[in-house]
Amino acid sequence: MSFINYSSREINCKIVYYGPGLCGKTTNLQFIYKKTNPQARGKMISLATETDRTLFFDFLPLSLGDIRGFKTRFHLYTVPGQVFYDASRKLILKGVDGVVFVADSQVERMEANIESFHNLRHNLSEQGYDLDTLPLVIQYNKRDLPNVVSMEELQKALNTRNVPAFEAVAPEGVGVFETLKAIAKLVLIELRKGTAG
Amino acid sequence: MLPNLVLYEEEFNLVTDVIKRLVSSANAKVVFLVDKNGQLITSSGHTEGIDTTSLASLTAGNIAATGGLAKLIGEKEFSILFHEGEKDNIHISIIGHRVILVVIFDEKSSLGLVRLRVKKSGEELEKLFTEIDEKAGADTSGLGVDSPFAEITDDDIENLFS
């Protein structure tokens, strides 16, 4: 659910990074934070445990510039990936405009990817959203590791909707901005259709 | 699922007026109005030095988490939260199940006064937001009739990233 303020001429959209535990959602946001001009971003907030696992969410506000005289602001959130934080994940999906699903490419995480994807579909539907129509981008992270599943297999397992998908190595920034750009685009196109939210 | 929140200048000014009056009547330092998804709607008072965007997002997270707790014990929501600090305190209340009113105050005010004034302003805000929702409901797209977004081109979007 975007928020359009005609008085300050701003449009605010919410993007949520979703995926299994340790797939690199927080790392995506950290890289974006590091590489963005300080004037274009706010503070990054991480509600994490002492061992740096996301407890509730990470939050990063970004300004992308003007579109037709309106400032476009994107609020990026991550969810906690660990299975038992499901109640928190549901809360963070409230009012979402677009989702980035970050998958862990390693063979042994394939099951976790699929479980998380089903969990996303389920949690979205509880809020009245449909994963088959919501703006969605998939990122296959950790492509630099030796034991990765082939892109073909990953696509077959997760990308049945044929949405934009990117290979990534989040700590080095490979694919990070491509993913962000793709989801921001989809959200804006949805807004143009007037069906956002 | 709530429709898009669209605020036009006229309504924005009415809402901001209520907030401004609350700052002085409650003797508060700052008052914020945040939507439940964590977006700042408007603020008034001594906002300098406060990261308003982060405050809005964390407040919404806070409300969402306590709302989750409420449901677990069979309550609909906890409509008022109060955080007491050494110097500054935060009073958070939900208005019309939709927006969150945040009042930050110090020893110049008191919890009793803040609660009293928030109640009155809350009623005014609830009325305003009902009208705003009705207006949005009448417009099925959820966007204004003269939405500037209906006409954005692929180039406009592409330019954002160049």
Structural description of this entry:
The complex is a heterodimer of chains A (197) and B (162). With 197 residues, chain A is an alpha/beta fold. Chain A has 5 helices and 8 strands. Chain A has helices at 25-35, 86-92, 110-126, 151-158, 176-193, and strands spanning 3-5, 10-18, 45-48, 54-67, 70-78, 98-104, 136-141, 165-167. In chain A, strands 1, 2, 3, 4, 5, 6, 7 and 8 form an 8-stranded mixed sheet that branches. Chain A is globular. Chain B has 162 residues and is α+β, with helices and mostly antiparallel strands. Chain B is 45% helix and 21% strand. Chain B contains 4 helices and 6 strands. Chain B has helices spanning 9-25, 52-72, 111-138, 154-160, and strands at residues 5-7, 30-35, 40-45, 80-84, 89-95, 99-105. In chain B, strands 3-2-6-5-4 form a 5-stranded antiparallel sheet, sandwiched between helices. Chain B is globular and about 55 Å long. The interface between A and B is large, with 48 and 42 residues.
How do the helices and strands line up, and which of them pair or pack?
The complex is a heterodimer of chains A (197) and B (162).
Chain A lengths: L2 E3 L4 E9 L6 H11 L9 E4 L5 E14 L2 E9 L7 H7 L5 E7 L5 H17 L9 E6 L9 H8 L6 E3 L8 H18 L4
Parallel strand pairs in A: 2-5, 2-6, 6-7, 7-8
Antiparallel strand pairs in A: 1-2, 3-4, 4-5
Chain B lengths: L4 E3 L1 H17 L4 E6 L4 E6 L6 H21 L7 E5 L4 E7 L3 E7 L5 H28 L15 H7 L2
Antiparallel strand pairs in B: 2-3, 2-6, 4-5, 5-6
Describe, in short, the structure shown.
The complex is a heterodimer of chains A (197) and B (162). Chain A is of the alpha/beta class and 197 residues long. Chain A is built from five helices and eight strands, in the order E-E-H-E-E-E-H-E-H-E-H-E-H.
- Sheet of most strands of chain B: 5 strands, antiparallel
Largest sheet of chain A at a glance?
A: 8 strands, mixed
Order of helices and strands of chain A: EEHEEEHEHEHEH
Radius of gyration of chain A, whole Å: 16 Å
Terminal CA distance of chain B: 34 Å
Shape of chain A: globular
SS field, number of helical segments of chain B = 4
Mean of all residue-level pLDDT scores of chain B: 89
* Alpha-carbon Rg of chain B, integer: 17 Å
Fraction in beta strands of chain A: 25-35%
